[in-house]
């Protein structure tokens, strides 16, 4: 029995979505438009087998929406105003958070570098970007290792006991990742090859077409004053 074919989106499609979603967030503040963006992003990561993350983001969105729609009208005072502001700000940028986590979790460094070469970016941009792209997941692993070591040795959690080793690890990680990037020949001025095939699938084409239709529709609705 044949296994289920894995759905894989090109990194250029994900980067396009990040850019377009940011522009959409500036275009309109209508709740209906926001719902379309959030559920569209959740649908994409669900298709890419990120069901658990999609569920968590969905719960977080409804909690923030409930605070804004039900709690804010009954809130008074600076503290409640601050809570409302933070909740709305986080909710507005939730689609960007969804797409950002999707990119970091489902994109290998080799694929990222191959796409950067495909986009014909200069080396001065590719090397720092490849280091940064690998930096945050590595720091997350270092954070987990520090917490595990503290638990094993019975050290209580404090800002000093966490931040000092984390900062030291951050410095070492940045140096090691930079050296690894140079060892892989990213600074070589010649033609680069890659085992990763960078190409659009029919899923990517569908996403580009749907995004284009939504963009045109949003501009038309904005022009007539509906959004």
Automatic annotation (TrEMBL):
It is a multi-pass membrane protein. The keyword Membrane applies. It is found in: Membrane. Keywords: Cell membrane, Membrane, Transmembrane, Transmembrane helix. The keyword Membrane applies. The chain crosses the membrane at residues 15-47, 54-72, 78-100, 205-226. This is Energy-coupling factor transporter transmembrane component T. It comes from Blautia parvula.
């Amino acid at each position: 029995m044949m296994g289920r074919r894995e759905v894989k989106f090109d990194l250029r499609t994900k980067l396009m979505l990040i850019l377009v979603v940011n522009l959409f967030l500036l275009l309109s503040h209508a709740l209906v438009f926001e719902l379309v963006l959030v559920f569209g992003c959740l649908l994409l990561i669900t298709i890419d087998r990120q069901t658990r993350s999609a569920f968590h983001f969905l719960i977080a969105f409804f909690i923030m929406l409930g605070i804004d729609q039900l709690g804010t009208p009954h809130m008074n005072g600076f503290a409640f105003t601050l809570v409302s502001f933070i909740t709305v700000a986080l909710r507005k940028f939730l689609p960007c958070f969804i797409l950002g986590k999707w990119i970091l979790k489902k994109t290998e460094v080799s694929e990222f570098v191959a796409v950067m070469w495909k986009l014909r970016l200069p080396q001065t941009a590719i090397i720092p970007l490849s280091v940064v792209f690998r930096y945050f997941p590595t720091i997350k692993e270092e954070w987990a290792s520090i917490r595990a070591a503290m638990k094993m040795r019975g050290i209580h959690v404090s800002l000093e006991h966490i931040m000092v080793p984390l900062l030291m690890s951050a410095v070492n990680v940045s140096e090691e990742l930079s050296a690894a990037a140079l060892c892989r020949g990213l600074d070589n001025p010649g033609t680069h090859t890659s085992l990763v095939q960078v190409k659009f699938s029919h899923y990517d084409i569908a996403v580009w077409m749907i995004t284009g239709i939504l963009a045109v529709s949003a501009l038309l609705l904005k022009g007539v004053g509906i959004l």
